[in-house]
Amino acid sequence: MIADLTPRERRAEAFSISRVALNLGITIGPLVAAPLITLDPAIRLTFLSAGTVRDVFLLMVIFPFKETRPAAARCVSVRAVFGGYGAVLRDRRMLVFCLVALLPLYGFGPIWVTMPIMLGDLHGVSAQQWGFAMVVYGAATAALQYPVVRIVGRRDHMLLMALSSLCIVLGLGARRSPPGRGRWPSSP
Fold it and tell me: How many whole angstroms separate alpha carbon 106 and alpha carbon 164?
């Protein structure tokens, strides 16, 4: 939808605004979940609330949202659909961009899954403290995303994506061991 509704020269800015919205979700989610978990420590209420939000969004996608692609670009047959994928798969620059864009997910995926467990086990970080960290992360990212994209938006997007991926990898690998301990924590 963003690519369909936004002029090419403003797409980085438009995608940045969508990322700001996602990070506001990361900020708001723990703030909403905290009282729900307090009301129901078994997390049933939290689980049902998250499912309800998901279902409402699904209904929004099905009913109020309209197709944004221009009529001339819409595919009407199975052959046309697969022909459209062929055009995308022949676009080497697009494929490289997608590959570079997906690289950070290999770092973020394990972090979002294992970081709260590891911080709890190794450093005694509670679920509430992790939630607070997510609120700070989401708010900081939401506040900085748009201005940074405005500043660097006119640069080569492939180079910027590669540099941001490199920064993420360096940040993930820059763990400093406490004095007297090896690279990895030993088991008790």
Answer: 13
